[in-house]
Amino acid sequence: MDTTIPPTMPAVVFRQGRGLVLEELPVPSVDPDGVLVQVAHTGFCGSDHALIQSGELADGSILGHEVSGRVAACGKAVSDVAVGQRVIVRPSHCGDCRDCRSGRPYFCQVSRRTIGIGDMPGAFAEYVHVLPSMLIPVPDGVDSSNAALAEAFAASLHGIHCVGRPNGSALVMGGGTIGLALVRLLTLMDFNPIVLSEPVAVKRELGIAFGAHAVMDPLTEETGPRVFELTAGQGFDAVYECSGVADNIAQALDWVARGGDVCIISLIFSAASIQPLTINFKEARLTGCYSNTHAENQLILRWMAEKRLDGRPLISDRTNLERLPQIYGERIAAGQTIKVMVDIGEAF
Ligand SMILES: [Zn+2]
Ligand SMILES: [Zn+2]
To answer: Is residue 304 part of a domain?
Structure first.
């Protein structure tokens, strides 16, 4: 690894009215309590697209939070972090408030700090400045591409933990990165059958490759009879909404079994209407989940190290910082990608 840190670096910056723009910026100086990470890869997340489209992103923002890399420099006050260490980066939190102590550190209102999607510049850049508490070491046997995908799997794992079922039948609605990651994780937990509902053929094929027992196309198939047939008329023990389509919540409640769970993992910004009686008559639970924990990321990385999990088939496109603005316009915004991985620095 090259340990000389250059004075400037390429970065992809959001500019009002122009969108994503490649710029040359100073490399961040290292605060006494900070760490500089040399980025290997950063995945492009659906939430990055949502932020760009929202109109609420500040001019000059650097996105990018699904990052793997190596520690390039440590501040004077930092111990327990070594230059060269292979890491992923997750938000930090106070560790002591009601939310942190209840196991939901992502709700911390005291000192949640996060790169790329919150208060600190992100990793669509050669270097990113972080706090030591944000670092999760990457175990041996996990390469930098897989490591950069750990957070997407952790988000799906968090949905499974929020529902809390050890096994059963499961329907995954939507085969984007989160839905496909969920299919893979449900197979590791012996859910059966696992069914993926997704209108795009290549995503259904990846669902099968990831271990789904059946797939269906909600736009062209008679899905009602299919659900009946796949679950012996009972409906699914767990239904995970991963598509972002508001109408799917009512559909999920129709297809969940009596006593079953519906969990909304996708972030749906529009209003949705449901029939509350469906919940009464099934005693179904409707829940949602948000973010994920360090422990969930560590578990995903361990499964990757044990070769039980390989996220890399999710990578539909590889690009670099120079081409990212163009790929964003041509492929990502047009919905033609699954996971776009931006190759930035030296891979491991
Ligand atoms: Zn993300
Ligand atoms: Zn807290």
So the answer is: no
Cα(113) to centroid of ligand 2, in Å? 10
Ligand 2 centroid distance, CA of 54 (Å): 27
Q: List, for residues 237-294, the tens digit of each pLDDT value.
A: 999 999 999 999 999 999 999 999 999 999 888 899 999 999 999 999 999 999 999 9
Domain interval for residue 231:
153-288
How far apart are alpha carbons 216 and 114 in whole angstroms? 37
Read off the CATH number of the domain in which 259 is found.
Answer: 3.40.50.720
pLDDT digits (tens, 9 = 90+) for 271-287: 999 999 999 999 999 99
Q: Measure 206 CA to ligand 1 centroid, in angstroms.
A: 20
Residues 6+ apart with CB under 8 A from 321: 10, 11, 12, 22, 124, 125, 126, 342, 344
Residues with CB under 5 A from ligand 2 (ion): 93-94, 97, 100, 108, 110
Indicate if 181 and 91 belong to the same structural domain: no
